[in-house]
Specification:
The complex is a heterodimer of chains A (about 160) and B (about 450). Chain A folds into 2 domains: about 5-85, Ubiquitin-like (UB roll), CATH 3.10.20; about 90-160, DNA polymerase, domain 1, CATH 1.10.150.120. Chain A is built from 5 helices and 5 strands, in the order ββαβββαααα. Chain A has helices at about 30-35, 90-100, 110-120, 130-135, 145-160, and strands at about 5-15, 15-25, 55-60, 60-65, 75-80. Chain A has a 5-stranded mixed beta sheet, with helices on both faces. In chain A, helix 2 crosses helix 5 (about 145-160). Chain B has helices at about 30-35, 70-75, 125-130, 145-150, 175-180, 225-235, 260-270, 280-285, 325-335, 370-385, 390-395, 415-430; strands at about 50-55, 60-70, 80, 105-110, 115-120, 135-140, 165-170, 185-190, 205-210, 215-220, 240-245, 275-280, 295-300, 310-320, 345-355. Chain B has 12 helices and 15 strands. The radius of gyration of chain B is 26 Å and the shape is globular. In chain B, helix 6 (about 225-235) crosses helix 7 (about 260-270) and helix 9 packs parallel to helix 10. Chain B has a domain at about 145-195 and about 290-430: Aldehyde oxidase/xanthine dehydrogenase, molybdopterin binding domain (Aldehyde Oxidoreductase, domain 4), CATH 3.30.365. Chain B is α+β, with helices and mostly antiparallel strands. Classes of the chains: A alpha+beta (about 160), B alpha+beta (about 450). The interface of A and B includes residues 97, 99 and 101 of A.
C-alpha cells in the first residue's frame, strides 16, 4: 500500500512549543516525530507495542507512539525525551540514570525515562514494586533493570 | 605462580582526583543517551537519501527459477531494483568462512534469505516495490534437525555436504575411566535457539563521497571486518571503503558479522545516492543470526569416593544454512563440555551441522551456556547418586592450579573456581542455606 493518505494539519504543542504544520497523514505518531520533526530521540524497537522504546507523553500520560495514530495528537500536548531535559539542565531522573549506571546501549533509555518521568509525576515517592510496575512496559536487554529501578528511586529522593 | 616471582603493585595515575579502578565512573556516552542525542544507525540521514528494502525468501529451501523485477523497476520513486546478477564483485560473505550468498542466486536456504533489493524515495514505495517483485520458486526437501542432516541420504543444504566441522577432543583413556567408575550418569540434553533481540534492530546508511570513497555508517561490532567483506562484494579495493560505527543499540554477538552493510553499499553504489536500510523487528528476527540449538548425548563417571573418572559426549549443533561464527561456537562446546572440572579421561566430539533453520552465530557465552546446562546437570545427578553434597562434590573435582583442562592444558593461573565455590560455601553457611534433594537452595 502506498501512503496516499491526505495531508492533515498537525496543530499541537510539542515539548512546550506550539507547532502547526501540514503533514502526510495516516502514519503513527512515532514516524511523524522522527520523519517530520527530526526528533530522533524517540526510538523504534519493535513497531508493534511490545518494547516501549517509543514511549512519549501525551497530555502527561505515557503512550506508545508506534501504536498511536499521529492525528490523535492534534490539539494536545506531546513530550518527548528532547523536552525532558537538556545537557546543563537535566531532569533528576536523567542525572540518576547516568550516575547509577542505568544506561548501557542506551536504546531503551529514552522510552524508559519517559515512563519513569510519568511515574514520578503522578507519584512522588514510589516504592520498588510501584517502580517495577511503572516500567513494566519497557524492555531493556543490557542492564537487567536493577540499576534503572535504583535510578528512579534516587530521582524520587532528589525530587521530594 | 612460582614463589620467586614478585608481585608487582600497579599504581594508576591519579587523574582529576580519582583512580579509575574501584571508583564509579559515568560512561562517556551516558549524557548523549539520556538526552536522546546519541545517533544510532536509523537516526542518521543525508540529503536526497533513499530507503532500502529487502525481498526475503518465504521458503526454507527452494530453487530460484525466475525473478521478475520489471514492475518494481517501473514504479515511480523507485531508483534501483537489484538481484544477484547485479553484484559487481563476488556474491559471498561470512565472518569466519565465506559461505553465505549476499542475494540468493540459484537457491534459497532459509526463510528470510535476501533475494532482491529495492531503493526508493520513501519507505512506503520501497515496500510496495518489494511486494511487486515476482519470484518463481521450486520448493525442495529441507533439513530441520541436525540429526536428520548428518544422514547419508539427507538433502544437501550446502553442495559439499551438511557437516560444517567435526571437532574431536581426546585425553587419557575414556574406556578405562568408565571401567574405574562406580557410578555412571548418561543423558541427552537439548537446548533451544534464542534471538539476541538487541533493542536496536540492524541498520545502516551508505553513500559515495565526492572522492569516490564508499562510506558506510552502521550499527556494527566489527567495522574493519565489515569493510573487507563489503570490498569483496563490490569489487573495490579495501581503501575505497570507509566503515564507521554508529552508536550501537545492543549487539550481544548479533552484529559481529555483516548485517546490512553490504546491502546498503550495493544500493548506494547502484543509485549514487545515500541509501538507508533499517530492519524492522520481524525482518531482523528472520534474517539475522541466533544462538545455536544443540543436542548433546553424554555420559559421566565417578568413583564412590566422589572423584570424576571419565567423560564422553557428542554435541550436534544446528548452525543453520551458513557458518557465520557457528564453526567456532560449536567447536568450543567439545572443549568445554566438561566445564571447570578435572577429568583424567575425556572424549568429546562436536559436530556443526548445516540445516535450513535460521542462521546461528555468535551470541554472548559462545557455546558455553549450552555446555554449562550439560555439565552442571551431570554434576548434580552424580552427586545425588553418590549421596554427596553437590557443592562438596564440585569442590572435590574442580580445576585447580596444576590440573589439566580437557585439552591437556595445565592450569597455572587464573583458575578461580575453587575460590568461588569456597566463598559460596561460606555464604551459604552464614545465611543457613543448603541444597535440597532436588538441588534447590533452601
Amino acid at each position: 500500500m502506498i501512503n496516499n493518505q491526505k495531508d492533515v494539519l498537525m496543530d499541537l504543542v510539542i515539548n512546550n512549543k506550539h507547532i502547526s504544520i501540514r503533514a502526510g497523514g495516516g502514519r503513527c505518531l512515532l514516524d511523524f516525530l522522527r520523519e517530520d520533526l527530526s526528533l530522533m530521540g524517540t526510538k523504534e524497537g519493535c513497531g508493534e507495542g511490545e518494547c516501549g522504546s517509543c514511549t512519549v507523553l501525551l497530555d502527561g500520560k505515557a503512550v506508545l507512539s508506534c501504536m498511536t495514530p499521529m492525528e490523535r495528537a492534534i490539539g494536545r500536548e506531546v513530550t518527548t525525551i528532547e523536552g525532558v531535559g537538556r545537557p546543563g539542565n537535566l531532569h533528576p531522573l536523567q542525572q540518576a540514570m547516568m550516575e547509577e549506571g542505568g544506561v548501557q546501549c542506551g536504546f531503551c533509555t529514552p522510552g524508559m525515562i519517559m515512563s519513569g518521568v510519568e511515574l514520578l509525576n503522578r507519584k512522588s515517592n514510589p516504592n520498588r514494586d510501584e517502580i517495577v510496575e511503572g516500567i513494566s512496559g519497557n524492555l531493556c536487554r543490557c542492564t537487567g533493570y536493577r540499576k534503572i529501578i535504583t535510578a528512579i528511586e534516587r530521582a524520587a529522593e532528589k525530587m521530594s | 605462580m612460582s614463589d620467586t616471582q614478585e608481585i608487582i603493585e600497579i599504581k594508576f595515575a591519579d587523574h582529576r582526583g580519582y583512580v579509575p579502578i574501584g571508583s564509579s565512573v559515568i560512561r562517556e556516552d551516558a549524557l548523549a543517551k539520556v538526552t536522546g542525542q546519541a545517533e544510532y544507525s536509523g537516526d542518521i540521514s543525508r540529503p536526497g537519501m533513499l530507503h532500502g528494502k529487502v525481498l526475503m525468501s518465504p521458503f526454507p529451501h527452494a530453487l530460484v527459477k525466475h525473478i521478475d523485477t520489471s514492475k518494481a523497476a517501473r514504479m515511480q520513486g523507485v531508483h534501483a531494483v537489484l538481484t544477484a546478477k547485479d553484484i559487481p564483485g563476488e556474491n559471498v560473505f561470512g565472518i569466519a568462512i565465506a559461505d553465505q550468498q549476499v542475494l540468493a542466486d540459484k537457491k534459497v536456504r532459509f526463510v528470510g534469505e535476501p533475494v532482491a533489493l529495492v531503493a526508493a524515495e520513501d519507505p512506503f514505495i520501497a515496500a510496495e516495490a518489494v511486494r511487486s517483485i515476482k519470484v518463481e520458486y521450486e520448493p525442495l526437501q529441507g533439513v530441520f534437525d541436525p540429526l536428520a542432516g548428518i544422514k547419508e541420504d539427507a538433502p544437501r543444504v550446502q553442495e559439499q555436504g551438511n557437516i560444517l566441522l567435526h571437532t574431536k577432543v581426546r585425553k587419557g583413556d575414556y574406556l578405562k575411566g568408565f571401567a574405574d567408575a562406580d557410578v555412571v550418569v548418561e543423558n541427552v540434553y537439548r537446548t533451544h535457539g534464542q534471538d539476541h533481540v538487541p533493542l536496536e534492530p540492524e541498520g545502516g546508511i551508505a553513500w559515495i563521497e565526492n572522492d569516490g570513497v564508499l562510506t558506510i555508517y552502521s550499527s556494527s561490532q566489527y567495522v574493519f571486518r565489515d569493510r573487507k567483506q563489503v570490498a569483496r562484494v563490490l569489487n573495490l579495493p579495501v581503501n575505497r571503503v570507509r566503515s564507521v560505527n554508529t552508536t550501537v543499540g545492543g549487539g550481544f554477538g548479533r552484529k559481529d558479522d555483516v548485517t546490512v552493510e553490504i546491502l546498503v553499499s550495493l544500493l548506494a553504489s547502484a543509485t549514487l545516492k545515500p541509501v538507508r536500510l533499517v530492519y524492522n523487528r520481524h525482518e531482523s528476527m528472520m534474517t539475522q543470526t541466533h544462538r545455536h540449538p544443540t543436542i548433546t548425548r553424554v555420559r559421566t563417571g565417578a568413583t564412590k569416593e566422589g572423584k570424576l573418572t571419565s567423560m564422553e559426549g557428542v554435541v550436534y549443533g544446528d548452525t543453520g544454512p551458513y557458518s557465520s561464527l557457528g564453526i567456532f561456537v560449536i567447536k568450543k562446546m567439545a572443549l568445554h563440555l566438561g566445564g571447570p572440572y578435572y577429568f583424567p579421561n575425556y572424549k568429546c566430539d562436536s559436530i556443526s551441522v548445516y540445516t535450513n533453520n535460521p542462521i546461528a552465530g555468535a551470541f554472548r557465552g559462545f557455546g558455553i551456556f549450552q555446555s554449562a546446562i550439560v555439565h552442571e546437570q551431570q554434576m548434580d545427578e552424580l552427586a545425588a547418586k553418590l549421596g554427596i553434597d553437590p557443592l562438596e562434590f564440585r569442590l572435590k573435582n574442580c580445576l585447580r592450579e596444576g590440573l589439566s583442562f580437557s585439552t591437556g592444558q595445565v592450569m597455572n593461573e587464573a583458575c578461580g573456581i575453587a575460590a568461588t565455590l569456597e566463598r559460596l560455601k561460606e555464604y551459604m553457611a552464614e545465611h543457613s542455606l543448603r541444597f535440597s534433594r532436588n538441588m534447590e537452595v533452601v
